[in-house]
Amino acid sequence: MSAGEGSQAAVRALDDTPEMTWADERGRLRYRTIFGADTTTSQLVLGRCVIEPGQQLAYHSHEATEVYHILTGRGELVLNGVVRSVHAGDSVFIPGRIPHGARSLGPEPLEFIYVYAADAAIGPATAYTMHER
Fold it and tell me: Whose CB has fewer CB within 10 Å in the chain, the N or C terminal residue?
């Protein structure tokens, strides 16, 4: 695929994207996918995730490489078994297949931007494999 193929330039408002909620074995959180194959690009996925205080994104892995940029709050990330503290302004690089998870430590929600090197937020490259922590 050549540069730009399968994509179009776009601007999207966060409020124009549907908010999804997880409350299951994957964790308890809200997210919005801003860009991905079902919007304007088949080259990456960009979204925003919000984890309320005391809630978590379960320890998991997937094929796609992922990046987080923390917008608000503070929390802890577990990256391949190592616990790291994070707060607003931090960025996190997660290679594909590396187990990772997040917990919001409050008092405000942990909110972050996520980017997947994948064509869709839900698909083979982002399918979760759950891990014991």
Answer: N
Q: What is the pLDDT along the chain (133 residues), one digit of tens a residue?
A: 345 555 678 898 999 899 999 999 999 999 999 988 677 777 889 999 999 999 999 999 998 999 999 999 999 999 999 999 999 999 999 999 999 999 999 899 999 999 998 765 666 767 778 888 7
* pTM reported for the whole predicted model: 0.87
- Cα–Cα dist 47/32, whole Å: 5
Beta bridge partners of 111: 50, 72
Question: End-to-end alpha-carbon separation of the chain, Å?
Answer: 38
Domain annotation for the chain: domains and CATH numbers: 16-130 (2.60.120.10)
CA–CA gap between residue 119 and residue 64 (Å, rounded): 10
Give 67's strand partners: 93, 115
Instruction: Sort strands 20-24 and 27-35 into parallel, antiparallel or unpaired.
Output: antiparallel
Cα–Cα distance, 38 to 19 (Å, whole number): 15
